[in-house]
Structure formats: C-alpha cells, structure tokens
UniProtKB/TrEMBL annotation:
Keywords of this entry: Oxidoreductase
InterPro entries to which the protein is assigned, alphabetical: 3-OHacyl-CoA_DH_NAD-bd, 3HC_DH_C, 6-PGluconate_DH-like_C_sf, 6PGD_dom2, NAD(P)-bd_dom_sf
SUPFAM superfamilies according to UniProt: 6-phosphogluconate dehydrogenase C-terminal domain-like, NAD(P)-binding Rossmann-fold domains
PANTHER family hit by this protein: 3-HYDROXYACYL-COA DEHYDROGENASE FAMILY PROTEIN, 3-HYDROXYBUTYRYL-COA DEHYDROGENASE
UniProt domain 3-hydroxyacyl-CoA dehydrogenase NAD binding: residue ranges: 5-184
Protein's organism: Sulfobacillus benefaciens
Protein name: 3-hydroxybutyryl-CoA dehydrogenase
Length: 399
C-alpha cells in the first residue's frame, strides 16, 4: 500500500518527534491535537530540530523550509479525512487509545491503516474498538524518536500481512530499523528491559545497595550504555511502574519491581522531569554519576550474571512463544536499548554450555525464573555451543 499522507494524533514530545521524522522523509503529515498550546510547543520543537540540522550543515535553509512545510498543525478532525495512515501518540491509557481509534475509524477512508505508538498495551484490544481490526497494528517509536533508530512493528490477532509490510517499508523510508513482533505485553525491548530492571531491584534490596553501586557495575562493565537507574530516571519512574504492572499481570512475579519503585512514584519522585527519582536533579552537584565500584568482587559477578541472564531468559521466552526471531530480538535490543550485543549473540560468545550450567545453578538459588529454556538444552545436547563450535543461535565461520 502506498502511503501518501500521514496523521499523527497527539502532539506531545513523541507525537511531535514522529511528525518530524515523516517531514524529514518528505512525507506530508498532519499533527493533530485538541490543545492549541500543545500544538504551538510542538511546532517550536520541530522547528528547533530542523534548525539544528541546518546549523550542523546537514540541511540547507531552503530545504529546511520545505521539510517544515510538510507538516500541517491542526485541531480539526476534518484535516485527517484524506490520510492513508494515522498513528496515535496519546498517553498510555487503553480507554483513551480506544476512544481515539473509534474516532479515527469513523473519519478515515476504509483502507487507511490505524497504528498505535503504545509501548506495552494490547493492539488487539485497540483494534476491537474499530470496524477494521485487520487494518490496525502497532508502530512503536523509541524515545527520543527523532534520533532513535528502532521501530517495533506489532501485529495484532487480526492484522493483515499487507499492513505489516507497509509499515516495515515506511519505517525504512524514515531511515529507521523495523523489527516485526507478534503482539504480547511489552513487545520486545520493554519486556526484556523490565525483566532486567526487576532483577536489579531485587538485587539492590537483598544486598542493601544504593543506585550508584549497581549503575557503576552496569555501565563500567559496558553491559548497557548507561546505568539502569539513570535510565529509569530519564524515562520516568511513573512510566516504568505502569509498564511493570502490565507485565506483572501478564507474566507473573518475575516482573514484580518490589516496593521501592512504587513508593517513589507515590511520592511523585518521577525522575529527571520532577527533579528527584533514584537520583536527585535539584542541582548539578546532586547528580551522582557512577563512581568507584564499592561492591565486593563476588557481588559484582552475581549482579552481572543476574542482569545478563535475566535478559537472556526473557529473550528466550519471546522466541519460544513465537513472538519474534532470535535475530530480530538481538537487533531490537541493540537498536532500541543500546546494548553492545544482543542476548543471543552474547550467549553464543560466552558459550551455550557455560550459560546452561550457570542457569542451572541460578535456578537452584533463585527459582524457576532462571530455569534453562528447552531450546538451549537441546542445542547444548547437540554440541552447538556458540562461537567456539561455529554454530549456536547463529552461524560463525571458523578461522
């Protein structure tokens, strides 16, 4: 399907960034919001992004005006009627998103695609609010959407393959990296990251550590591009808490974040946006980046194992459920979470026999959330141990 014009509904930061991406690809876009003040802020934000490219010599002044002119800022429903694709980018409330989808279903042509930028909610439940569930899918951009490359394309229970193909091609036109996911709570990146965050929170509580201790190991060992608690503060503790509750209801206690995260949210300590989260941001001197590691060597190794293997276990569950392929998961975790290696490539590098034995030992200590997946046991049984044997989750040329 050819997409001639796009609507983005919701002009907050994510909606504005999504509209900017389409404008930079020279695709006409209507940015729609009921609040004219929010639209004005979005207009300023997008213009600043475009001018930033001009200042860096990546865009000429005339071309900048042309790209900005691709965006129509509107409070009117009628401006959406001739769009081929609408992407909702309203707050993470299923009821609100269903309401938006009902209205879009009424307004847009019968073959138009309705997409959601949700990070964790059910695409199928949104689709059920429309008369065209086969034309509904997820198109999840990552924050900040004007720089992050990953887009998760989520297929609901009734989504047509042609819709998925169209959104994949369109993402590539935006110079993004699309990864196709069969619907499940949290999709790929948020589901896997939240599993590792829950594990880190358990470890923190058990060992009576502060956030700096854990972030120093995670970032110092280059397990992730930044410390976990620094990341959660940047994303917003309220968002992390909401996603954790969705995942806990869906998958059980392995996603239980414990009491600390919820208590911070109740106190309205939501991270950078409120000036206080796991760290304080009231002044520059109060922001404490990871410093020297104060944990014992034994504690550090336990944290590394629990962090990396919680990532691997959730990634394995996704694949065994048929939600995504190993390659798609690894691409998503590198492009969307900034990991230096995807969970499956990392396991191949360590050695699948080593991973299997570690998981067996950890399942005895910490419970069934670390029980080795059957697919791993089968590969180890066949002698497919990763890089050292030339074959594991992926193939390797032996030199």
């Amino acid at each position: 399907m050819y997409v001639k014009k796009v609507a983005v509904v919701g002009a907050g930061t994510m909606g504005a960034d999504i509209a900017y991406n389409f404008a930079m690809a020279n695709i006409p876009v209507v940015l729609r919001d009921v609040d004219s003040k929010i639209l004005s802020k979005a207009q300023e934000h997008i213009w600043d992004l475009i001018q930033g490219r001009v200042a860096k010599g990546r865009l000429g002044s005339a071309d900048a005006e042309k790209r900005f002119g691709q965006i129509q800022f509107s409070t009117q429903d009628d401006d959406l009627r001739d769009t081929s694709l609408a992407i909702e980018a309203v707050p993470e409330s299923l009821q609100l998103k269903q309401q938006v989808f009902r209205e879009l279903d009424r307004l847009l042509p019968p073959l138009a695609i309705l997409a959601s930028n949700t990070s964790a909610l059910s695409i199928s439940e949104m689709a059920n609010a429309t008369t065209r569930p086969e034309r509904v899918a997820g198109m999840h951009f990552f924050y900040p959407a004007h720089t992050m490359k990953l887009v998760e394309i989520i297929s609901g229970d009734e989504t047509d393959q042609e819709v998925v193909t169209t959104l994949v091609r369109l993402s590539e036109e935006l110079r993004k990296i699309p990864v196709v996911v069969q619907e499940c709570p949290g999709f790929v990146v948020n589901r896997i990251l939240m599993a590792s965050l829950a594990e880190a929170l358990r470890f923190k509580s058990e060992k009576h550590l502060n956030p700096q201790d854990i972030d120093a190991v995670v970032s110092g060992r280059k397990l992730a591009p930044m410390g976990l608690f620094t990341l959660v503060d940047a994303l917003g503790l309220d968002i992390a808490w909401d996603v954790a509750q969705i995942l806990k209801r869906a998958y059980g206690d392995r996603f239980d974040p414990g009491t600390e995260l919820g208590e911070l949210v109740r106190q309205h300590h939501l991270g950078v946006k409120t000036g206080q989260g796991f760290y304080s941001y009231q002044s520059a001197s109060q922001v404490k980046p990871p410093g020297p590691v104060s944990m014992s060597a034994e504690q550090q190794e336990e944290l590394i194992d629990r962090f990396t293997l919680s990532l691997f276990m959730e990634a394995s569950r996704l694949v065994e459920e048929g939600r995504a392929s190993e390659r798609s998961v690894d691409i998503a975790m590198r492009a969307g979470a900034g990991l230096p290696m995807g969970p499956f490539a990392a396991a191949d590098k360590i050695g699948l026999d080593v991973v299997y034995n570690k998981l067996k030992e950890m399942s005895h200590r910490f419970g069934e959330r670390f029980t080795p997946p059957s697919s791993l046991a089968q590969m180890v049984g066949r002698g497919q141990l990763g890089e050292k044997t030339g074959r594991g989750y992926f193939y390797y040329k032996k030199i």
